[in-house]
Amino acid sequence: MIVAIDGPAGAGKSTVAKAVAKRLGYRYMDTGAMYRALAWKVMRHGADPGDEAALGSILRNTAVDLGADAGAPSVMLDGVDVSGAIRTAEVGQMASKVSGLGVVRKRMAELQRAMGRGGAVVAEGRDMGTVVFPEAEVKVYLDASPETRARRRFRELAAKEPGLTLEETLADVVRRDRRDKGRAVAPLRRADDAVFIDSTSLPVEAVVERVLQEVKKKSNENGRIVS
Ligand code: DC
């Protein structure tokens, strides 16, 4: 089974997807980390994120891979673990920019589909249920108010980025939402058959249980047993 979880920044996708993957013994796929890894390389090369030809050339010489362990997720860029380096607001913004290019999305989707072959994955991102895995048995669209999402992001980033304020984080989240929802290729949107969950005032455990319920429901429909 494929469990696809989409939604905007700070909605709680990673925490929920990781917990669901662990409970099911599935592979966890953080597709945002793949875009972040590429963005990190683009920044280091000083390339223009709007230059499709330059990005195409970087992509051809780039290997991005995700570790399979839901307990310790990692992303490898050209054989180097960049899991820590990509978790900054700046890399997030750059990831949002490079992910608007068709050439980038096409390559990432290919890699993601290859990783998802065989199923037993929980994949989170912006276009899992709409574009990459439209056949996913379980689709979830996870959202929360912008203020709540900004507070969560701020808590994650504050220790790493001491100068950062909550106001800046909120502006960052809003800017990223606008770009991710407004792009021409694979914009962030809820798939018609996705379950909508608002995590604004729900604890993580409740969201995890809600997703697991969906998995059980689908498994029963398909005659499979999930513990
Ligand atoms: O989930 P995240 O914050 O790590 O994602 C970083 C950026 O990558 C996000 O702003 C948009 C992009 N992204 C995407 O376009 N498609 C995905 N499936 C995942 C992330």
Brief rundown of the structure:
Strands 2-6-1-7-8 form a five-stranded parallel sheet, with helices on both faces. A three-stranded antiparallel sheet has the order 3-4-5, with helices on one face.
Please describe the topology of this protein.
Elements: E1 2-6, H1 13-24, E2 27-30, H2 31-45, H3 52-60, E3 64-66, E4 75-77, E5 80-81, H4 89-98, H5 102-116, E6 121-125, H6 128-132, E7 138-143, H7 146-157, H8 166-182, E8 195-198, H9 204-221
Parallel strand pairs: 1-6, 1-7, 2-6, 7-8
Antiparallel strand pairs: 3-4, 4-5
Helix pairs in contact: 1-9, 2-4, 3-5, 4-8, 7-8
2'-deoxycytidine-5'-monophosphate binds next to α2, α4 and α8.
Number of domains: 1
Structural class: alpha/beta
- Low-confidence runs of at least 5 consecutive residues: none
The ligands found in this model are:
2'-deoxycytidine-5'-monophosphate
| Rg from alpha-carbon coordinates | 17 Å
Task: Write structural notes for this entry.
The chain is of the alpha/beta class. It has a single domain, classed as Rossmann fold, CATH 3.40.50. It has 9 helices and 8 strands. The chain has helices spanning 13-24, 31-45, 52-60, 89-98, 102-116, 128-132, 146-157, 166-182, 204-221; strands spanning 2-6, 27-30, 64-66, 75-77, 80-81, 121-125, 138-143, 195-198. The strands form 2 sheets. The chain has a 5-stranded parallel sheet, sandwiched between helices. The chain has a 3-stranded antiparallel sheet with strand order 3-4-5, with helices on one face. Strand 3 and strand 4 (75-77) form a beta hairpin. Helix 2 (31-45) packs across helix 4 (89-98), helix 3 (52-60) packs parallel to helix 5 and helix 4 (89-98) packs parallel to helix 8. It is globular. The structure holds 2'-deoxycytidine-5'-monophosphate (DC). Residues 9, 31-32, 35-36, 92, 95-96, 99, 125-127, 176, 180 line the site of 2'-deoxycytidine-5'-monophosphate.
